[in-house]
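Retro notes
What went well: the complex prediction finally ran end to end.
Inputs used:
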Amino acid sequence: MVDEQEGGLSPVRIVNELKANEITHVVWLPDSETNFLYQLLESDATLNLIVVSREGQAFSTAAGLVIGGKKPVVLIQNTGLLESGDSLRGWGIGLNMPIVVMVGYRGWNRRGVTSEAEVALFTEPMLNALGIRYYLVENDSDADRIGVAFADAERLGRPVAILVGDEFHGFNR
Amino acid sequence: MIDVSDMVRAIFPYRGDAIVISGRASRHWAEISERPSLDLGLGDPGMGGHASFALGLAMAQPDVPVILFDSEGDLLMNLGALPTIAEQEPRNLYHFVMDNECYATTGGQPVPNAKRIQYDVIAQACGYPSTFTYGEIESLSRDLEHILSLPGPVFVAMKVTPEIENLPIGQRLRWQTRTLEENLRDLQSELGVSQRAPHGRNMRVVKA
Protein backbone atom coordinates (compact mmCIF):
# COMPACT_ATOMS: atom_id res chain seq x y z
CA MET A 1 0.00 0.00 0.00
CA VAL A 2 1.33 3.39 -0.95
CA ASP A 3 0.61 6.28 1.36
CA GLU A 4 0.73 9.03 -1.18
CA GLN A 5 -0.32 9.20 -4.77
CA GLU A 6 2.03 9.82 -7.61
CA GLY A 7 0.73 12.83 -9.46
CA GLY A 8 -2.80 14.07 -9.33
CA LEU A 9 -5.96 14.14 -11.34
CA SER A 10 -5.85 17.12 -13.64
CA PRO A 11 -9.00 19.09 -14.41
CA VAL A 12 -8.09 19.16 -18.09
CA ARG A 13 -8.01 15.39 -18.15
CA ILE A 14 -11.45 15.25 -16.57
CA VAL A 15 -12.90 17.66 -19.09
CA ASN A 16 -11.32 15.74 -21.94
CA GLU A 17 -12.85 12.52 -20.66
CA LEU A 18 -16.27 14.14 -20.46
CA LYS A 19 -15.94 15.35 -24.02
CA ALA A 20 -14.69 12.00 -25.23
CA ASN A 21 -17.83 10.45 -23.75
CA GLU A 22 -20.05 13.00 -25.50
CA ILE A 23 -21.38 14.59 -22.36
CA THR A 24 -23.84 17.39 -23.09
CA HIS A 25 -24.62 18.71 -19.59
CA VAL A 26 -22.78 18.82 -16.29
CA VAL A 27 -25.21 18.91 -13.37
CA TRP A 28 -23.38 19.80 -10.23
CA LEU A 29 -23.04 21.42 -6.92
CA PRO A 30 -19.57 22.87 -6.50
CA ASP A 31 -17.33 21.64 -3.70
CA SER A 32 -13.90 22.61 -2.52
CA GLU A 33 -12.21 19.86 -4.50
CA THR A 34 -13.57 20.97 -7.84
CA ASN A 35 -13.48 24.74 -8.04
CA PHE A 36 -10.77 24.84 -10.68
CA LEU A 37 -12.74 22.34 -12.70
CA TYR A 38 -15.60 24.82 -12.54
CA GLN A 39 -13.56 27.45 -14.30
CA LEU A 40 -12.74 25.05 -17.10
CA LEU A 41 -16.33 23.91 -17.48
CA GLU A 42 -17.67 27.43 -17.45
CA SER A 43 -15.34 28.47 -20.23
CA ASP A 44 -16.17 25.46 -22.40
CA ALA A 45 -19.00 26.17 -24.79
CA THR A 46 -19.67 22.52 -25.56
CA LEU A 47 -20.57 21.56 -22.00
CA ASN A 48 -23.71 23.06 -20.52
CA LEU A 49 -23.40 23.71 -16.83
CA ILE A 50 -26.42 23.37 -14.55
CA VAL A 51 -25.72 24.39 -10.99
CA VAL A 52 -28.15 22.93 -8.47
CA SER A 53 -28.88 24.16 -4.95
CA ARG A 54 -28.99 20.75 -3.32
CA GLU A 55 -27.57 17.50 -4.59
CA GLY A 56 -30.92 15.74 -4.62
CA GLN A 57 -31.95 18.04 -7.44
CA ALA A 58 -29.19 16.71 -9.62
CA PHE A 59 -30.62 13.26 -10.27
CA SER A 60 -34.10 14.39 -11.24
CA THR A 61 -32.59 17.08 -13.47
CA ALA A 62 -30.34 14.52 -15.09
CA ALA A 63 -33.27 12.13 -15.57
CA GLY A 64 -35.16 14.81 -17.45
CA LEU A 65 -32.17 15.44 -19.66
CA VAL A 66 -31.79 11.72 -20.42
CA ILE A 67 -35.45 11.28 -21.27
CA GLY A 68 -35.11 14.27 -23.58
CA GLY A 69 -32.18 12.69 -25.37
CA LYS A 70 -29.17 14.33 -23.74
CA LYS A 71 -26.24 12.80 -21.89
CA PRO A 72 -25.55 14.46 -18.55
CA VAL A 73 -23.01 13.74 -15.86
CA VAL A 74 -23.68 14.53 -12.21
CA LEU A 75 -20.79 16.02 -10.26
CA ILE A 76 -21.17 16.20 -6.48
CA GLN A 77 -19.32 15.51 -3.24
CA ASN A 78 -19.90 12.38 -1.16
CA THR A 79 -21.66 14.47 1.48
CA GLY A 80 -24.18 15.36 -1.22
CA LEU A 81 -24.41 11.76 -2.31
CA LEU A 82 -25.73 10.91 1.14
CA GLU A 83 -28.13 13.83 1.01
CA SER A 84 -29.55 12.74 -2.32
CA GLY A 85 -30.22 9.13 -1.45
CA ASP A 86 -33.93 9.01 -2.21
CA SER A 87 -33.57 11.08 -5.35
CA LEU A 88 -30.86 8.76 -6.61
CA ARG A 89 -33.06 5.78 -5.78
CA GLY A 90 -36.20 7.10 -7.40
CA TRP A 91 -35.06 9.21 -10.32
CA GLY A 92 -31.89 7.28 -11.07
CA ILE A 93 -32.35 3.62 -10.21
CA GLY A 94 -36.15 3.61 -10.34
CA LEU A 95 -36.28 5.09 -13.83
CA ASN A 96 -33.32 3.02 -15.07
CA MET A 97 -31.28 6.08 -15.87
CA PRO A 98 -27.78 5.51 -17.26
CA ILE A 99 -26.38 8.43 -15.30
CA VAL A 100 -22.75 8.65 -14.23
CA VAL A 101 -22.19 10.49 -10.98
CA MET A 102 -18.70 11.74 -10.21
CA VAL A 103 -18.30 11.95 -6.48
CA GLY A 104 -15.64 13.95 -4.69
CA TYR A 105 -14.43 11.44 -2.10
CA ARG A 106 -14.08 13.77 0.87
CA GLY A 107 -12.22 12.20 3.75
CA TRP A 108 -10.78 9.38 1.70
CA ASN A 109 -7.15 8.40 2.02
CA ARG A 110 -4.99 5.35 1.66
CA ARG A 111 -4.19 4.88 5.32
CA GLY A 112 -7.60 3.86 6.53
CA VAL A 113 -7.90 7.03 8.56
CA THR A 114 -10.71 9.45 7.92
CA SER A 115 -9.02 12.54 9.12
CA GLU A 116 -11.30 15.07 7.47
CA ALA A 117 -14.78 13.71 7.88
CA GLU A 118 -16.47 10.45 8.64
CA VAL A 119 -18.53 10.78 5.49
CA ALA A 120 -15.84 8.68 3.83
CA LEU A 121 -16.87 5.77 6.03
CA PHE A 122 -20.38 5.77 4.61
CA THR A 123 -19.69 6.47 0.97
CA GLU A 124 -18.94 3.02 -0.39
CA PRO A 125 -21.40 1.24 1.94
CA MET A 126 -24.15 3.49 0.62
CA LEU A 127 -23.27 2.76 -3.00
CA ASN A 128 -23.15 -0.94 -2.21
CA ALA A 129 -26.50 -0.77 -0.44
CA LEU A 130 -28.04 0.78 -3.53
CA GLY A 131 -26.33 -1.71 -5.80
CA ILE A 132 -24.44 1.00 -7.62
CA ARG A 133 -21.21 0.00 -9.30
CA TYR A 134 -18.32 2.41 -8.73
CA TYR A 135 -14.78 3.11 -9.79
CA LEU A 136 -12.03 4.87 -7.87
CA VAL A 137 -10.10 7.49 -9.82
CA GLU A 138 -7.10 8.99 -8.05
CA ASN A 139 -4.87 10.36 -10.78
CA ASP A 140 -4.54 10.81 -14.51
CA SER A 141 -3.46 7.22 -15.02
CA ASP A 142 -6.84 6.11 -13.67
CA ALA A 143 -8.82 8.49 -15.84
CA ASP A 144 -9.70 5.90 -18.44
CA ARG A 145 -12.01 4.39 -15.82
CA ILE A 146 -14.29 7.33 -16.46
CA GLY A 147 -15.04 5.98 -19.92
CA VAL A 148 -15.57 2.52 -18.47
CA ALA A 149 -18.12 3.97 -16.07
CA PHE A 150 -20.05 5.63 -18.87
CA ALA A 151 -20.06 2.39 -20.85
CA ASP A 152 -21.30 0.49 -17.80
CA ALA A 153 -24.10 2.94 -17.19
CA GLU A 154 -25.33 2.62 -20.76
CA ARG A 155 -25.07 -1.16 -20.76
CA LEU A 156 -26.67 -1.66 -17.36
CA GLY A 157 -29.27 1.10 -17.59
CA ARG A 158 -28.37 2.22 -14.11
CA PRO A 159 -26.43 4.96 -12.39
CA VAL A 160 -22.72 4.28 -12.01
CA ALA A 161 -20.41 6.22 -9.70
CA ILE A 162 -16.85 7.47 -10.04
CA LEU A 163 -15.19 8.20 -6.72
CA VAL A 164 -12.66 10.95 -7.18
CA GLY A 165 -10.06 10.13 -4.57
CA ASP A 166 -7.58 12.88 -5.19
CA GLU A 167 -6.88 13.61 -1.56
CA PHE A 168 -3.38 14.95 -1.81
CA HIS A 169 -3.61 17.17 -4.83
CA GLY A 170 -7.19 18.10 -5.49
CA PHE A 171 -8.72 19.71 -8.52
CA ASN A 172 -8.17 23.10 -7.03
CA ARG A 173 -4.43 23.03 -6.77
CA MET B 1 -60.38 27.15 -4.66
CA ILE B 2 -60.12 25.54 -8.07
CA ASP B 3 -61.08 21.94 -8.73
CA VAL B 4 -58.16 20.11 -10.31
CA SER B 5 -60.48 18.62 -12.91
CA ASP B 6 -61.59 22.13 -13.90
CA MET B 7 -57.98 23.29 -14.01
CA VAL B 8 -56.88 20.61 -16.46
CA ARG B 9 -59.94 21.16 -18.62
CA ALA B 10 -59.14 24.86 -18.80
CA ILE B 11 -55.58 24.18 -19.92
CA PHE B 12 -56.49 21.37 -22.30
CA PRO B 13 -57.46 23.59 -25.30
CA TYR B 14 -54.04 25.24 -25.26
CA ARG B 15 -51.98 22.11 -24.94
CA GLY B 16 -50.95 21.88 -28.59
CA ASP B 17 -47.77 19.83 -28.95
CA ALA B 18 -46.64 20.37 -25.41
CA ILE B 19 -45.26 17.63 -23.23
CA VAL B 20 -47.43 17.47 -20.11
CA ILE B 21 -45.85 16.21 -16.90
CA SER B 22 -49.08 15.64 -15.10
CA GLY B 23 -47.98 14.98 -11.51
CA ARG B 24 -50.82 14.94 -8.99
CA ALA B 25 -53.25 15.92 -11.75
CA SER B 26 -52.49 12.79 -13.76
CA ARG B 27 -55.80 11.07 -13.14
CA HIS B 28 -57.78 14.05 -14.37
CA TRP B 29 -55.47 14.80 -17.26
CA ALA B 30 -55.53 11.19 -18.50
CA GLU B 31 -59.32 11.39 -18.76
CA ILE B 32 -59.22 14.16 -21.34
CA SER B 33 -55.83 14.03 -23.04
CA GLU B 34 -55.81 13.30 -26.73
CA ARG B 35 -52.02 13.03 -26.93
CA PRO B 36 -51.12 10.36 -24.38
CA SER B 37 -47.76 9.79 -26.03
CA LEU B 38 -46.81 13.31 -24.99
CA ASP B 39 -48.08 12.84 -21.45
CA LEU B 40 -45.75 11.90 -18.66
CA GLY B 41 -47.42 10.64 -15.53
CA LEU B 42 -44.41 9.58 -13.55
CA GLY B 43 -46.14 8.58 -10.37
CA ASP B 44 -43.84 9.50 -7.53
CA PRO B 45 -40.25 8.54 -8.34
CA GLY B 46 -38.94 10.66 -5.50
CA MET B 47 -40.91 13.45 -3.92
CA GLY B 48 -39.44 16.87 -4.54
CA GLY B 49 -38.03 16.16 -7.97
CA HIS B 50 -40.71 17.07 -10.46
CA ALA B 51 -39.59 20.66 -11.03
CA SER B 52 -35.99 19.64 -11.61
CA PHE B 53 -37.04 16.81 -13.89
CA ALA B 54 -39.13 19.24 -15.92
CA LEU B 55 -36.16 21.59 -16.15
CA GLY B 56 -33.98 18.82 -17.54
CA LEU B 57 -36.58 17.75 -20.06
CA ALA B 58 -37.24 21.34 -21.14
CA MET B 59 -33.53 21.97 -21.64
CA ALA B 60 -33.14 18.76 -23.61
CA GLN B 61 -36.06 19.63 -25.88
CA PRO B 62 -35.95 23.43 -26.16
CA ASP B 63 -38.33 23.55 -29.11
CA VAL B 64 -41.10 21.63 -27.37
CA PRO B 65 -43.24 23.35 -24.73
CA VAL B 66 -43.20 21.56 -21.39
CA ILE B 67 -46.16 21.97 -19.03
CA LEU B 68 -45.62 20.78 -15.48
CA PHE B 69 -48.44 20.22 -13.01
CA ASP B 70 -46.41 20.46 -9.84
CA SER B 71 -47.78 20.44 -6.31
CA GLU B 72 -46.85 22.59 -3.36
CA GLY B 73 -45.78 19.68 -1.16
CA ASP B 74 -43.40 18.50 -3.85
CA LEU B 75 -42.07 21.99 -4.44
CA LEU B 76 -41.56 22.66 -0.74
CA MET B 77 -39.23 19.70 -0.58
CA ASN B 78 -37.00 21.30 -3.13
CA LEU B 79 -37.49 25.05 -3.25
CA GLY B 80 -33.87 25.29 -4.32
CA ALA B 81 -34.97 24.12 -7.75
CA LEU B 82 -36.49 27.52 -8.41
CA PRO B 83 -33.28 29.56 -8.68
CA THR B 84 -31.75 26.84 -10.86
CA ILE B 85 -34.73 26.98 -13.21
CA ALA B 86 -34.67 30.77 -13.24
CA GLU B 87 -30.95 30.81 -13.99
CA GLN B 88 -31.26 28.35 -16.87
CA GLU B 89 -34.18 30.32 -18.36
CA PRO B 90 -35.93 27.51 -20.25
CA ARG B 91 -38.20 29.49 -22.53
CA ASN B 92 -40.40 26.44 -23.05
CA LEU B 93 -41.21 25.62 -19.41
CA TYR B 94 -44.64 26.37 -17.90
CA HIS B 95 -44.60 25.57 -14.21
CA PHE B 96 -48.10 25.22 -12.74
CA VAL B 97 -48.25 24.55 -9.01
CA MET B 98 -51.36 23.10 -7.42
CA ASP B 99 -51.53 24.40 -3.86
CA ASN B 100 -54.08 22.45 -1.84
CA GLU B 101 -52.43 23.48 1.43
CA CYS B 102 -51.95 19.88 2.52
CA TYR B 103 -50.41 16.50 1.91
CA ALA B 104 -53.52 15.07 0.30
CA THR B 105 -52.16 11.63 -0.46
CA THR B 106 -51.25 10.99 3.16
CA GLY B 107 -54.57 12.02 4.61
CA GLY B 108 -54.63 15.80 4.33
CA GLN B 109 -52.17 16.99 6.94
CA PRO B 110 -51.28 20.66 6.37
CA VAL B 111 -47.99 21.59 4.75
CA PRO B 112 -45.86 24.01 6.81
CA ASN B 113 -47.44 27.44 7.11
CA ALA B 114 -50.03 26.27 4.61
CA LYS B 115 -52.30 29.31 4.64
CA ARG B 116 -49.70 32.02 4.30
CA ILE B 117 -47.15 30.94 1.71
CA GLN B 118 -47.13 32.91 -1.54
CA TYR B 119 -45.50 30.58 -4.01
CA ASP B 120 -45.66 33.05 -6.87
CA VAL B 121 -43.76 35.58 -4.77
CA ILE B 122 -41.10 33.00 -3.99
CA ALA B 123 -40.76 32.15 -7.68
CA GLN B 124 -40.56 35.80 -8.63
CA ALA B 125 -37.91 36.44 -6.00
CA CYS B 126 -35.93 33.49 -7.34
CA GLY B 127 -35.89 35.09 -10.76
CA TYR B 128 -38.82 33.69 -12.73
CA PRO B 129 -39.62 36.44 -15.23
CA SER B 130 -43.38 35.79 -15.23
CA THR B 131 -45.40 34.68 -12.23
CA PHE B 132 -49.11 34.48 -11.53
CA THR B 133 -51.46 33.35 -8.79
CA TYR B 134 -55.10 32.29 -8.96
CA GLY B 135 -57.77 31.18 -6.56
CA GLU B 136 -60.68 30.72 -8.92
CA ILE B 137 -61.16 29.03 -12.26
CA GLU B 138 -62.69 32.02 -14.04
CA SER B 139 -59.66 34.26 -13.83
CA LEU B 140 -57.28 31.40 -14.56
CA SER B 141 -59.27 30.43 -17.65
CA ARG B 142 -59.34 34.05 -18.81
CA ASP B 143 -55.54 34.38 -18.68
CA LEU B 144 -54.35 30.99 -19.87
CA GLU B 145 -53.93 31.87 -23.53
CA HIS B 146 -51.74 34.80 -22.55
CA ILE B 147 -49.80 32.80 -19.96
CA LEU B 148 -48.98 30.05 -22.43
CA SER B 149 -47.87 32.56 -25.05
CA LEU B 150 -45.22 34.03 -22.77
CA PRO B 151 -41.60 32.93 -22.92
CA GLY B 152 -40.71 30.71 -20.01
CA PRO B 153 -40.00 29.98 -17.39
CA VAL B 154 -43.52 30.92 -16.33
CA PHE B 155 -44.80 30.13 -12.85
CA VAL B 156 -48.50 29.81 -12.01
CA ALA B 157 -49.62 29.17 -8.45
CA MET B 158 -53.16 27.91 -8.05
CA LYS B 159 -55.20 27.29 -4.91
CA VAL B 160 -56.87 23.95 -5.57
CA THR B 161 -59.39 21.84 -3.72
CA PRO B 162 -57.71 18.98 -1.84
CA GLU B 163 -58.46 15.47 -3.05
CA ILE B 164 -57.63 13.72 0.17
CA GLU B 165 -56.92 10.02 0.16
CA ASN B 166 -57.09 7.96 3.31
CA LEU B 167 -57.23 4.43 2.00
CA PRO B 168 -54.13 2.29 2.37
CA ILE B 169 -52.05 2.66 -0.77
CA GLY B 170 -52.76 -0.88 -1.88
CA GLN B 171 -56.51 -0.25 -1.83
CA ARG B 172 -56.52 2.97 -3.82
CA LEU B 173 -58.10 3.23 -7.23
CA ARG B 174 -55.68 2.53 -10.04
CA TRP B 175 -56.41 4.78 -12.99
CA GLN B 176 -53.28 4.19 -15.06
CA THR B 177 -53.64 2.52 -18.42
CA ARG B 178 -49.95 2.34 -19.27
CA THR B 179 -46.93 1.21 -17.33
CA LEU B 180 -44.26 3.74 -16.53
CA GLU B 181 -42.04 1.88 -18.95
CA GLU B 182 -44.57 2.36 -21.74
CA ASN B 183 -45.04 5.97 -20.75
CA LEU B 184 -41.35 6.81 -21.09
CA ARG B 185 -40.93 4.79 -24.25
CA ASP B 186 -43.92 6.44 -25.91
CA LEU B 187 -42.64 9.91 -25.10
CA GLN B 188 -39.14 9.21 -26.36
CA SER B 189 -40.59 7.70 -29.52
CA GLU B 190 -42.75 10.79 -30.03
CA LEU B 191 -39.73 13.03 -29.54
CA GLY B 192 -37.56 10.96 -31.85
CA VAL B 193 -35.13 10.26 -29.05
CA SER B 194 -33.14 7.06 -29.14
CA GLN B 195 -33.80 5.22 -25.94
CA ARG B 196 -30.62 5.30 -23.92
CA ALA B 197 -32.16 3.61 -20.93
CA PRO B 198 -33.08 -0.06 -21.34
CA HIS B 199 -36.56 0.55 -20.01
CA GLY B 200 -38.10 -2.45 -18.42
CA ARG B 201 -35.31 -3.57 -16.16
CA ASN B 202 -36.54 -3.13 -12.60
CA MET B 203 -39.20 -0.76 -13.87
CA ARG B 204 -42.11 -0.42 -11.52
CA VAL B 205 -45.44 -1.46 -12.93
CA VAL B 206 -48.13 1.07 -12.20
CA LYS B 207 -50.61 -0.35 -14.65
CA ALA B 208 -54.18 -0.83 -13.48
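What we learned: The CA atoms of residues 36 and 172 of chain A lie 5 Å apart.
What to try next: split runs per interface for comparison.
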